[in-house]
Amino acid sequence: MLGRTDSRPRLLILLVAFVVGSLALVTRSAYWQVLERDKLTAAAAIQTTLRVEVPSRRGDIYDRSGTVLLATTVERDRLVAAADQLAKTPDKKRLTNDTIVGLLGLDAAGAATLRDNLDSGRPYVILARDIDAAKADEIRAAIADGRLTNITLEAEPLRVYPQEGGGPDTSLAAQLIGFVNQASQGQYGIEQHYQDTLGGSPRVLVSERDVNGRPMPETAVVEAPGTTGEDLRLTIDAGLQLHLEQELLAAWIADKAQSVSAVVMDPYTGEVYAEATYPSYDANAYKTVASQDPGRFVDPVVSSVYEPGSVFKMMTAAAALEARTVTTTTMIKDTGTLRLDGGTQKVSDADRRGRGWMTFRDAVAFSRNVVAAKVAMGLGKTTRQAAAVLYDTWMKLGYGRPTGIDLAGEVGGIVRDPGITPWRQIDLANGSFGQGVAVTPIQLAAAYAALMNGGTIIQPHVVKAIGTQDVPVASGPRVIEPGLSRTLIGMMAHVVSSVPTYKERTLVPGYSVGGKTGTAQIWDPKANHGRGAWKDNLFNYSFVGYIGREKDKPDLVVAVRIEEGHPTIARVGQLEMPVMSFQLFRRIATDAITTPDLLSYRAAAVPTSGADR
Question: Of 35, 71, 123, 607, which sits most exposed with the smallest number of CB within 10 A?
Answer without folding.
Answer: 35
